[in-house]
Specification:
With 473 residues, the protein is α+β, with helices and mostly antiparallel strands. 36% of the residues lie in helices and 26% in strands.
């Protein structure tokens, strides 16, 4: 900061030294000008010297003009490496933000020729629409390359306009959809996060595959038993990729199918999915072992925990204590077949199961959150002697919280109109409900809105944790 611009008590401060220097410079300039004038006006070679000076100035100006035109296309670079502002443009927000800050995120995938300059042409077309490229992934194919972009575009641009520009630049088979802030996470970070979730809980594998591959339908088919006559074929050990369908060998046997009809899978995506399934197979069966100890209104203490196939015998014993009416309302079929459903329901490959256990160790209630393709089903079974005590509402609230955490958009329950307890529990969630009758069976669908997850916990409060256990009174 110069001496003149420094302030003292809010006013500029001037120093006499600066004034003396300026006067001395002025007197020196006058003296030099007078000497030059005397030399030219009174000297014998004055006119020649004046003419030579003029020629030298003209030559210098011509050289400077030629040099500027030859190198004028290269913008000057400051000593800090920063790019200068464009001519006639003030510093401020970018073009996307200048229009009121309105912008939109898009995920786009297109196929380009595997040759030099194809990606550059695509990027130039996007730049012409004032679109910023936030991330780029390449998926090599036998012929061509699939480029997947995360874009930030002006809000007024629609998908059709972007697609036309990409097609004109050489993109083929372009697919585009809106993205959100979750897509801003880079791929390695997202894959590591999904691997961690899968390592902690075997039930996370279908959800991890869905988040890895986008919107898709995932189904788990049990292994084909000899003599079953089923037409399905087991997937090979290394899996199989067929355009929009993946078939992967399930860790416990059987097949995991992943289908995405709107967009073919690439070999890169197939390799990622196969690696995630292989990790799950190496880790073996596992579920989180945390448990919550709750006190019912009448004073009885119960424990709510995750259950798996190791609880099969205890679950069968609960079936024996349940009435035929309770079992038929839960399974909607012959009561004698109830036990054979348990192996499927307790497997973490098909969803998550919560068990309610008494102080004596008996299981008196089961709640299931089942991955049904791209939908999610909830189901409850409470032993007769423990019904009407709030156990069903407790289980359902926790299952819905799990569904919200898993990113599910809705959950549905299949029951009978006479099952007033299940209908009341669904209404007690405080969520928008849709009712539909299908072949005499009532299907109640709850749409999971933006209500905070903690507010859906049982009894409307967050449990207090003590040493890995939680208590609620």
């Amino acid at each position: 900061m110069s001496d003149v611009t420094r302030a003292k008590h809010g006013r500029p401060v001037h120093h006499w030294r600066r004034d003396v220097v300026e006067l001395a410079a002025l007197f020196t300039a006058v003296a030099v000008a007078d000497a030059v004038a005397n030399l030219i006006g009174h000297g014998p070679d004055g006119p020649v010297l004046l003419l030579m000076s003029a020629v030298a100035l003209v030559a210098t100006a011509a050289f400077h003009t030629w040099w500027s035109r030859r190198h004028g296309h290269a913008p000057p670079v400051s000593d800090t490496g920063a790019r200068p502002l464009a001519e006639g443009r003030q510093a401020g927000p970018s073009g996307t933000e200048a229009a009121g800050g309105a912008s939109a995120l898009w995920r786009m995938r297109t196929t380009v020729k595997d040759e030099p300059g194809s990606l550059a042409a695509l990027c130039t077309a996007l730049a012409g629409l004032r679109i910023d490229i936030l991330s780029l992934q390449t998926h090599p194919l036998a012929q061509g390359t699939v480029d997947e972009f995360l874009l930030r575009a002006p809000a007024e641009l629609d998908a059709a306009e972007v697609t036309r520009a990409v097609s004109a630049a050489g993109g083929d088979g372009t697919w585009i959809e809106r993205a959100d802030a979750h897509d801003l996470v880079d791929v390695p970070t997202r894959v590591l996060g999904l691997a961690t979730r899968t390592a902690l809980d075997a039930a996370e594998l279908p959800l991890a595959l869905r988040q890895l591959l986008g919107r898709c339908t995932i189904r788990s088919l049990p292994a084909r038993s000899p003599g079953s006559g089923r037409a399905e074929e087991d997937a090979p050990v290394e899996g199989a990729l067929e355009d929009t369908l993946m078939r992967l060998r399930a860790p416990e046997g059987g097949v995991i199918t992943v289908e995405r009809p709107y967009l073919p899978f690439t070999p890169t995506e197939f390799a990622r999915a196969r690696a995630l399934v292989e990790l799950d197979a190496r880790l073996g069966p596992r579920i989180p072992r945390s448990q919550d100890v709750l006190t019912l209104p009448e004073g009885n203490a119960i424990t709510v925990r995750r259950a798996d196939t190791s609880d099969l015998e205890a679950a069968k014993e609960m079936h024996e204590r349940c009435s035929a009416r309770t079992l038929s309302m839960r399974y909607h079929g012959p009561v004698g077949d109830a036990d054979r459903y348990l192996s499927h329901l307790l497997s973490p490959r098909f969803g998550r199961t919560l068990a309610v256990q008494t102080a004596s160790g008996q299981i008196v209630g089961l709640g299931h959150l089942l991955w049904d393709g791209d939908e999610t089903e909830v189901a409850l079974l409470v032993e007769d002697d423990w019904q009407r005590r709030g156990i069903g509402a407790e289980l359902l609230g926790r299952l819905v919280t799990m569904a919200v955490e898993a990113g599910c958009e809705s959950v549905y329950a299949v029951t009978q109109a006479s099952n007033t307890g299940m209908v009341a529990a669904m209404r007690g969630l405080g969520l928008p409900l849709d009712y539909q009758i299908e072949e005499g069976t009532l299907v109640v669908t709850a749409r999971l809105d933006a209500t905070p997850v903690a507010s859906r916990l049982p009894y409307g409060q967050t449990p207090q944790r003590h040493g890995g256990r939680s208590t609620q009174d």
